[in-house]
Amino acid sequence: MTTDVYGPEKRSAVMRRVRGKDTAPELIVRRMLWRLGARYRLHRRDLPGRPDVALPGRRLAIFVHGCFWHGHDCARGARVPKANRVYWLDKVARNRARDAAARAALEAQGWCVETVWECELKDRARLEARMRGVLASRLPARL
Question: What are the CA-CA distances from residue 17 to residues 20, 53, 70, 128 (Å)?
Fold first, then answer.
């Protein structure tokens, strides 16, 4: 078993700095959506999984996931720390299960769910084209 390179106090301080909302990738996606004319609500507590961005008129929920934390199949997401390996494998597995449950619950309520991965931000033009297509396919409901 490998031990942590930091002591408990330092590890706690490092983990406290990991943000749950308003992360840099999330802010990039929000600015992009705003530029595309989408208006949205943030972190709606009344929706399963509390999507990072919700467009209620379009019934569209967008999650912005960090590749490491949510176990994406890219190089960064596939990386597992050597220290405390079992803990991290379990942690990511729990995150993935929670994400799948939230997606299923939202879809059961009639929402379209999109996931934007951190690695997708490397090609902004491609991501913008994808978001443009998603917004076009989910036109706002007219009363």
Answer: 9, 22, 18, 29
